[in-house]
């Protein structure tokens, strides 16, 4: 069903938990089972840990607008106690959820009986102290904060700051800074809305805090540029500290040049030294110290360049692919069509195309590299460009923070792949 | 020529997307609409610039009349490449060379919305009547607001073209500039409106920022203020288009049907492509960018709110009327 389409995937900071959000506003959290001593060779698998409804469809009566419940992004907070905390957002509202376990329950109340019914005080002749007894594990999710009414446009990104006290939310034209404890106000740190909307030429497409420097963040635009801002410079970070842009290749100019240069995702490397951006056809790695061009450019599916008009017609050209780093920043991954996803090894410069499908996803099966045939002659295992299924797109992927475990969302299916154990 | 057809097709597709975005769940997506408007602009530039033999889009060389300003476009005379107006036969031939492929391209392209294909198929015959006509007209003017106001030189004959509602397409050239008077189809290009220099804008990039607008003039004209509100000499036909809207197309206009289909698309191109705000702007009059009112930006571009000065339009989507009317 449509509401099952996964719209975001995110590992937590230890990789123990994997959260997915879907179009129906639900969040499903998977937990990696502990590797038991008895089964050393059996890597921990992910099982459903908790499911809850994060957002519901809403209606803005003032503007006669329906607000979709689709979860756009989930971001985990670092764990600071036994409970887990995550932020989830739809187009308009960010929520902080607490996911906690309950494996004991109090028994022996004086005023309530075992079923919870109130007892008649007149019948109580003795007093006892309630005790905690073990119970079946129950995982409950409670909304702890609701950050609402701060965005006129559609929220596309949230990012937790490394100070663990603040986070930002970005919509098409503005970025707001929040304190986790304060829900009734946020601080606007970027505003690119022109005084006259007729002069609008670009929108914010993604934003992220630096992994270590709590004063630094980046945001990408629909024009293919990235701006790095330092919150110490001024309260309103409309003037960037660094501006990353690659000059356009005039030979590639077409009607759709602007669309395919729009950045759909931006991610800092774990080291904080690089940023990676995804536009429609490529993934680029930028060194923060060099603004005039990326240091690496990877072609994801360049064979689509001649098909842009058709992709415009069927709206595929507007698909927003995400990109992820592996834990050591040596490999980057992003999705494509036909349930293909691509990995690029930055060191060896090798790349691979894999497919997330039921046929080749038997447990322990090894994924076979796929190849798209561009020319006339198609080899046996290749698939031609015209046979690609553009309805099967992998927009959201995640990589375990330290191990080679990846989560790939293919429409309404979640695939989890692990590096084979030697 | 193929570029022109391709551009035309892309324009049609883009318009369909814009139309459909208004009924999509979750409200208008600013990012997507911005990208579509950029494509529309590029396609429009190609569409209007690709020279076709026999294509009559410009006046005689050396015509002094200033072009109707697209917002942000610097004023310029007819660029090189636009020569003498073709003879009447050539002019009549323009629709003939294009309508078949274009019509099919246009009608098949926007699969999503049935408004556009319906528009092209119905052509003249389905001129909206009565209230719809007013709606279309008012919507048209509103749409054209920023462009028209941005046109510094409003005095040129085509300067009043922004005032012309859809029904005036009988009196308009494909590029959207109004004709000087009641021109039966096939009339040679001797009339002053030959100074349609709105087409030759292609080589120059449109700066995205149109100058400030004066919506009031347009608004009044849109409501049917008549020539008084428009200084342009081309304002005479103002009343005529309104009448046209309210009546079914006469037989005399049938001959123009083929030409009009593409002509209407050209009109839409000029209007939609001129500025992004044409897609999302609120009402031109009081609805200027107030701080809070404007906050709603794209979300406010809803039927009930845009047509605040026309009670009859409250239930009507101005964009759909604009498109359907074609």
TrEMBL record, chain A:
Molecular-function GO terms, alphabetical: protein phosphatase regulator activity
Domain of life: Eukaryota
GO cellular component, one term: protein phosphatase type 2A complex
SMART domains (alphabetical): WD40
Keyword Repeat: yes
Repeat recorded as keyword: yes
Keywords of this entry: Repeat, WD repeat
InterPro entries given in the database record: PP2A_PR55, PP2A_PR55_CS, WD40/YVTN_repeat-like_dom_sf, WD40_repeat_dom_sf, WD40_rpt
Entry-linked PANTHER family: PROTEIN PHOSPHATASE PP2A REGULATORY SUBUNIT B
Protein family per UniProt: Belongs to the phosphatase 2A regulatory subunit B family.
Stated name of the protein: Serine/threonine-protein phosphatase 2A 55 kDa regulatory subunit B
Organism, as annotated: Cebus imitator (Panamanian white-faced capuchin)
Gene encoding the protein: PPP2R2B
